[in-house]
Amino acid sequence: MSIIVRDSGFEIDTWESDGGLFIDLEKYGQDVAEREPTKTAIDIPNDVTVESLKGLFESAAMIRIPFPSFADGRGFSLAKQLRQQGYAGRLRAVGHIIADQYGFTRVCGFDEVEIDDEMAKRQPEDQWIARIPKQELSYQKLLMGERSLRNI
Amino acid sequence: MYNYNQFDHDFVRNRVKEFRGQVERRLDGSLTEDEFKPLRLMNGLYLQLHAYMLRVAIPYGTLNSRQMNQLAMISEKWDKGYGHFTTRQNIQYNWPKLKDTPDILDALADVEMHAIQTSGNCVRNVTADHFAGAAADEIEDPRPTAELLRQWSMDHPEFQFLPRKFKIAMTGSPNDRAVTKAHDIGIRMVRNDKNEPGYEILIGGGLGRTPMIGKVVREFLPKENLLPYVEAILQVYNLNGRRDNKYKARIKILVHETGIDTLRGWIEEVFKTQKAHHQAPPAEMIEAIEAQFQPPEFDTAKVDEDKLSKIISADPLLRSFVETNVSEHFDSNHSIVTISLKPIGGTPGDATAEQMRIMAGLAEAYGYDELRVSHEQNIILPHVRRDDLPEIYKVLKEAGLATANVGLLSDMIACPGMDYCALATARSIPVAQELLNAFEDLKVQQDIGPLKIKISGCINACGHHHVGHIGILGLDKAGVESYQITLGGDGTETATIGERAGPGFSYEEIVPAVSRIIDRYMDIRESGDDTFLDVYRRVGADVFKDALYPEEAASA
């Protein structure tokens, strides 16, 4: 089972039980008519260019970006680019992310992080809550006025 | 000198608190060893051959006496009473205990210092010309920009998990003392044809296993665009740099494989977006940073040069010190003093707590309370009155710190090598020491003139051997140390990667081999001003190869 981490804490993932679908990017263009846009999420790989997603991502209710390893930081830049290109839907990071990175995901534009049970047990809720970004301690906000990203 | 504001204090203290928590969470199992590793690295803590090593940031190599005294205190309280100044203008402690490190970080924060991002796959400590703000040849002090970049890179949410480490170096002078062409980003302060200040930006330089000279990606960048442009470079690198092979993960490989022109196009595209989405730093912040790097209020009393010159010529050792270790300051009453941390027989870059305190004391008494660490592992007093030179020399001499060898053969760079480092494949420090013993006589060194020998104990090239006039690379050949020589390297504005001379030499053979190169140079130079590098560039490698491999030369 997956746990969703948000600023409010841990939640059980209800996307699929509520009728939502995760569609791989390569299949996203197919059977569009049979899907309800508000119930459709795209799974994009982390080596895709945002340029190549234009015309697709705007309609997605959710985009999910994978972190195959917590040391692979491409997802941070990808999220930031999607937000800068105007994506306003739900943005989820999924995979090997550690609590210490939660703040980075949020500042880069993710709304939430999807982790597995093992991680949720090993790094319980309080460790994630402790890493809600402290905007008052951000040099980037101070210097550049990070203003493009939502929900912060 | 940059002094922390309340924000900087809060940021650094919070970071120490976070790290303290991470150490505890490693011990209680919340973090696996794999997960803890990059977190400790981005707080400066390495696991070395025998113990942990803590690398403390000295941003752009600038510090004051209070900070130097604290570094001395830390070395006594939590280490073995000495520290090692590095080619990244940092200081490393080789023997701290994991459990003590949060306390050490707190002690650093007490004096406005930290160890953040001195390691790990993130933007590292920004380095700059060690003569910045003092040199006679400077266009503009690079340190306000370096400080801006330090702040920008701190805990940057997007760039903490890059494909590999990322190093930025800056110079404000046309004479490049910061090796900017061997960094991931090199920044030179320039003026455009309207005489407006800006930056020339190079990317893709680096040493290591695949040495490359940086390429110009932007000839002129207006100052206010620096942060969005650097963001653009980092974003392109983060998304496109290779992650399949750590030895091909630096931006130099991306530049090499993609081509500078294509990459420039990508960066410019992202730059447009970054500019649109970010504000320029508030003018008052920039002004507040710049104000802190104003030169000190110099004592304007005219130095009696005649009297000084008599004192200097009366003492041959003092004279040799002044000739070798003292450089021109932009203010004619002042000079720049380089304190050599390369005593004959010592470990390049090491200083004891007592020596640190003496250098701090000199800075306080005679140097407007300022010190620098150079990438050549020496300590600089950037502003001293010329009539204080004899007294400064006297104090240094008593402390064993007056070696008059700056820029000479014995002013070597050597990495820690197999004596400390887990990656090393050969010893470096003993080779340096034996070379020093072979050329012990400073008069001989002065006769040889400017010569940069740089020694790395493995292919990762921490000793910068590629840019040594004579570079030495220690390798492991079937369990035996083998030292390869490169010739003609140069780390300045005329940066060049040294050329491999031929087969390697054993540990016993390497010092005689270097001696043969130097003998050949002495034989063929036209005068004392004809430097090794000049001669090498004029006559080419073959003349020196013949000296290195006499048997082959004889049979050819």
Structural class of chain B: alpha+beta
Strand content of chain A: 15-25%
Radius of gyration of chain B: 23 Å
Largest interface: A-B, 40 and 40 residues
> Could you give the distance between the termini of chain A?
28 Å
Give a quick account of the main beta sheet of chain A: strands, pairing sense, barrel closure.
7 strands, mixed
User: What is the level 1 CATH name of the largest domain in chain B?
Assistant: Alpha Beta
Within the largest sheet of chain A, what's the order of strands?
2-1-7-6-5-4-3
CATH class of chain A: Alpha Beta
Fraction of residues in helix of chain B? 25-40%
Radius of gyration of chain A: 15 Å
Shape of chain A: globular
The pLDDT mean of chain A sits at 92
Number of helices of chain B: 19
What multimeric state do the chains show? Answer: heterodimer
The CATH topology of the largest domain in chain B comes to Sulfite Reductase Hemoprotein, domain 1
DSSP summary, beta strand count of chain A: 7
Number of domains of chain A: 1
What does this structure look like?
The complex is a heterodimer of chains A (152) and B (556). With 152 residues, chain A is of the alpha/beta class. Chain A has a single domain, classed as Aldolase class I (TIM Barrel). Helices cover 22% and strands 22% of the residues of chain A. Chain A contains five helices and seven strands. In chain A, strands 2-1-7-6-5-4-3 form a seven-stranded mixed β-sheet. Chain A starts with a strand and ends in an 8-residue tail after the last helix. The C terminus of chain A is likely disordered. Chain B has 556 residues and is α+β, with helices and mostly antiparallel strands. Chain B has four domains: 105 residues, Sulfite Reductase Hemoprotein, domain 2, CATH 3.90.480.20; 156 residues, 2-Layer Sandwich (Sulfite Reductase Hemoprotein, domain 1); 94 residues, Sulfite Reductase Hemoprotein, domain 2 (Alpha-Beta Complex), CATH 3.90.480.20; 142 residues, Sulfite Reductase Hemoprotein, domain 1, CATH 3.30.413. The radius of gyration of chain B is 23 Å and the shape is globular. The model of chain B has no long low-confidence stretch (mean pLDDT 95). At the A-B interface, helix 1, helix 2 and helix 5 of A face helix 1, helix 2, helix 5 and helix 6 of B.
